[in-house]
Every structure is written in C-alpha cells, then in structure tokens.
Amino acid sequence: MFDGPDFPKALDEELFETWLEKGRDQQIGNKYLLVIWDSLDEDYKPVFVDKRSDIAHYEDYGSAVSQESLIAAYDLYSESRIMPRRT
Question: What is the DSSP letter of 42?
Fold first, then answer.
C-alpha cells in the first residue's frame, strides 16, 4: 500500500493490518489510525487518536521544521480511509 510516485515508499499490508489490530486492542478508546512518514527514520509509523479533531494536529506536520508527515488517517473499526482524500 502507498505504492506509487506520491509516496516515499510502499507500506507492507501485513504491518498495516497489525497496526489496525493494535489500535482496536488498546484499552484507551482509540478510534483512528494515522499513518505518519518519519523522514529521519525513512519509515512509516502508526499514531492512534481517539477524536477526529485530534487529526488536525497532525495535518500541520510536513513543514520544514518537522520530520514527520501525515500520509493518511483511517477509522479503526470500519477500516475506511478518512483523509487525505486522494484521487
């Protein structure tokens, strides 16, 4: 997944599935999985949030001062991509 010229590298589907499971299994009421690109580590990492409004904090990532960029956000339970909407 995230395979193409708009992304720094592909993300392994099995790893993504384990992130979804991990988010659902946490006792904190997480509802969303954010896929973040870390430019220093040159790898993706998961961030879990419980409110959709928390996603806005991560949308500001990707500026010149940040090493992290928000790639996508998913609802943990429906597994639907909620942002960013790419065509």
Answer: T
